[in-house]
Design a protein that fits this description.
With 348 residues, the chain is α+β, with helices and mostly antiparallel strands. It contains 12 helices and 13 strands.
Length: 348
């Protein structure tokens, strides 16, 4: 069901005040319960999405992105047993290419069903390995993380007049001098740590080019970045992909906050979410060609990122939704990553 900007219904502001009061109460309870609550979140995430052998499930399938997020979470919660299980499954099942990158898609009974890589998955796994090497003083993790980061840098970075850009995958994203990129693959907080493991000016240059692209790639009434962006002489919405700010691009403000970006970089996202503050639904996406929106309530992971962005840089005030046992993998992953970001940026 889609509502256009002219069809958005306002609702009684008292309901909003009550909801915020309940959210504040939940926040106070979270402070009281402290780290025990955080540990239970990780345990619940594992029960829902991580199998005993270390495979992270998204429905029936598994992806390099999910494996990387699982490894990041395991490192954050200092769970070396889970980290090793997830990493070992990833290494055994997704390292099937001859260029040092990971195959991105695996299904039970078939194994790898798409050998192309997904650059965000590669970066997440590399980042997790570099962090784990630091936490547990492991040369094995450090070597694996550095090697994967170097493969990304050498195989997936292309020069442009706007600076180096990341291909989303090794195959299928460049044609006749025109590139298609996904700005949510710019994992801004990872770049400084990857640069220490793999010293190269490319990593800070990628951080700069990502921010430059975000400043220019503003579409629709709220000036939002799309899930997919065509990079040529000018920036454009690719004609063969949906013109959406949606479940891919939602990660952009998360990574901006995590990297300590300026408050101004969050302005388009805040404007979008502020518009729907008193609406009876919280949209997961908007089409950038006609400003229509999804009139179903967004998943908790989306609302968590929006809640953090609302108060940024005062992240200690963020009021996140509680975990839910029925949440799908991606929503839970976004919610957990937002929690990790809050711990690192606001000491929570």
């Amino acid at each position: 069901m889609v509502a256009t900007k002219g069809e958005i219904i306002r609702f009684n502001s008292a309901r909003h005040v009550a909801a915020r009061a309940l959210a504040l109460l939940a926040l106070l309870l979270a402070f009281v319960t402290g780290s025990a609550c955080a540990a239970s979140d990780w345990e619940q995430y594992q029960r829902a999405h991580v199998q005993a052998d270390g495979r992270v499930t998204d429905g029936a399938a598994s992806h390099s992105e999910g494996q990387g997020i699982g490894m990041l979470l395991a490192e954050h919660y200092a769970d070396r047993g889970a980290f090793d299980r997830i990493w070992n499954w990833t290494r055994r099942n997704l390292m099937v290419r001859d260029d040092g990158l990971l195959a991105w898609h695996w299904t039970p009974g078939k194994g790898v069903t798409d050998r192309n890589n997904a650059t965000d998955g590669d970066l997440l796994v590399a980042w997790a390995l570099v962090r784990a090497a630091q936490r547990w003083n492991s040369s094995e993790y450090r070597s694996a993380g550095t090697s994967l980061a170097r493969s990304v840098r050498e195989k997936l970075v292309r020069p442009t007049p706007r600076g180096p850009v990341l291909l989303p995958g090794a195959e299928g994203f460049e044609k006749n001098g025109v590139l298609v990129v996904n700005l949510s693959y710019w994992i801004f907080p990872a770049f400084p740590e990857l640069a220490r493991a793999d010293p190269s000016p490319v990593w800070p240059q990628l951080a700069e080019s990502g921010r430059r692209l975000l400043a220019e790639a503003q579409f629709g009434r709220w000036g939002l970045p799309p899930n997919w962006l065509q990079v040529g002489d000018r920036l454009a919405l690719p004609p063969d992909r949906p013109a959406l700010f949606g479940y891919d691009a939602i990660r952009i403000p998360l990574y901006l906050m995590w990297s300590g970006a300026s408050e101004g970089t969050l302005k388009p996202f805040r404007a979008f979410w502020e518009y729907f503050r008193n609406a009876p639904f919280f949209p997961a996406w908007t089409r950038l060609d006609d400003d229509s929106v999804d009139s179903h309530d967004a998943l908790k992971g989306v609302r968590a990122i929006a809640a953090a962005a609302e108060v940024y840089p005062m992240l200690e005030q963020a009021q996140l939704p509680a975990s839910g046992s029925a949440e799908p993998y991606y929503s839970d992953a976004l919610l957990m990553l937002t929690r990790v970001m809050l711990w690192e940026r606001a000491g929570r």
